[in-house]
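Help needed: design a sequence for this.
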């Protein structure tokens, strides 16, 4: 019965709404309220929670210091994220086979089934009315890089869906406090690292992020905030994207991929340099407390360096020359800066240890 009813979604307007922000910024709380309000308006909505759909081990790289292992975990994490979008896409194409996940999917099937069931409720008095009820997918994740959000935009454009974004801006102290009050808090270090990486929607820079709003969620979400979100989604439902390719947007996507490649290669080189520095420190008989301090400072330096590298690359690379970028040369020149900073840190620690 559920599969039969789901077959009607192809004729209904639909919207993919991205909820992004730091962990504990209030995304889950907002999504529950939006779903209640959507039901009151006769919409069908569901929360696509990445935390529920993606296995926990995919979010945590093993602290082994081995480049190959860390890269393996990063690749697995990306595959899981892609699997979530694959499942949404399959439902959009063939909702009548909702019980079947793509063979490549690596997500929690029970959690996905709950997502779909939410779209089939509540019952309406008229079947034809149910067929036309708008569909709203609330994608609940951090989405800290624009490239993550752009993948959702591409899916919405492919199927002529509405697309919008809600950025929940919450101060770091509140996020940490809320997280610590949870039954299963994530490590504070994860939130701190996310703060360094998070890039909020920027319509001035990315034209595809125009349909976005910012909510300050440091305090409780107000009725006015909910109204703004509902108006945003309503506008997106009324103005679905065109599947026609836009060269400008494609070039921006290519540039994002090139930036990701540069940062990835730089990250690998930096990890190697850090390993070399730690080896040198051990050979110099640096005390354990100084070793820990060196490791912390080097990793913090690497995080800042990679964040600034990505930002600088996207700002300075000519918009139409991504294909001509010599990634290896860019990485080498950039990492030379990190290498100099690494040497200064190492020398200072060795001198302090003496």
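Sure. Designed sequence:
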């Amino acid at each position: 019965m559920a599969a039969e009813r789901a077959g009607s979604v192809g004729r209904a307007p639909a919207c993919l709404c991205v909820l992004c922000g730091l962990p504990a910024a209030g995304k889950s709380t907002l999504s529950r309220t939006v779903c209640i309000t959507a039901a009151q308006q006769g919409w069908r909505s569901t929360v696509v929670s990445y935390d529920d759909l993606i296995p926990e081990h995919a979010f945590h790289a093993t602290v082994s210091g081995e480049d190959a292992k860390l890269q393996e975990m990063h690749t697995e994490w990306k595959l899981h994220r892609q699997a979530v979008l694959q499942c949404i896409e399959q439902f959009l194409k063939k909702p009548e086979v909702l019980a079947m996940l793509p063979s490549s999917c690596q997500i929690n099937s029970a959690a996905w089934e709950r997502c779909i069931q939410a779209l089939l409720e509540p019952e309406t008095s008229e079947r034809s009315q149910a067929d036309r009820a708008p569909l709203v997918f609330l994608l609940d994740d951090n989405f800290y890089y624009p490239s993550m959000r752009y993948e959702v935009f591409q899916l919405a454009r492919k199927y002529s869906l509405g697309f919008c974004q809600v950025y929940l801006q919450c101060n770091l102290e509140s996020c940490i406090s809320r997280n610590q009050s949870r039954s299963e808090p994530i490590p504070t270090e994860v939130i701190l690292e996310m703060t360094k990486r998070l890039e909020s929607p920027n319509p001035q820079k990315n034209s595809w992020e125009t349909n976005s709003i910012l909510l300050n969620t440091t305090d409780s979400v107000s009725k006015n905030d909910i109204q703004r979100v509902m108006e945003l989604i309503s506008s997106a439902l009324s103005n679905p994207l065109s599947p026609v390719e836009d060269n400008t947007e494609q070039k921006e996507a290519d540039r994002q991929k090139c930036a990701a490649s540069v940062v990835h290669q730089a990250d690998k080189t930096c990890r190697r340099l850090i390993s070399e520095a730690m080896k040198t420190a051990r050979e110099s008989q640096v005390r354990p407390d100084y070793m820990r301090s060196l490791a912390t400072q080097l990793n913090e330096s690497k995080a800042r360096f990679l964040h600034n590298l990505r930002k600088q690359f996207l700002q300075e690379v000519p918009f139409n020359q991504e294909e001509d970028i010599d990634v290896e040369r860019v990485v080498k020149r950039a990492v030379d800066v990190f290498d100099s900073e690494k040497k200064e840190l190492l020398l200072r620690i060795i001198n302090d240890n003496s």
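Residues 247-283 form the longest helix (37 residues).
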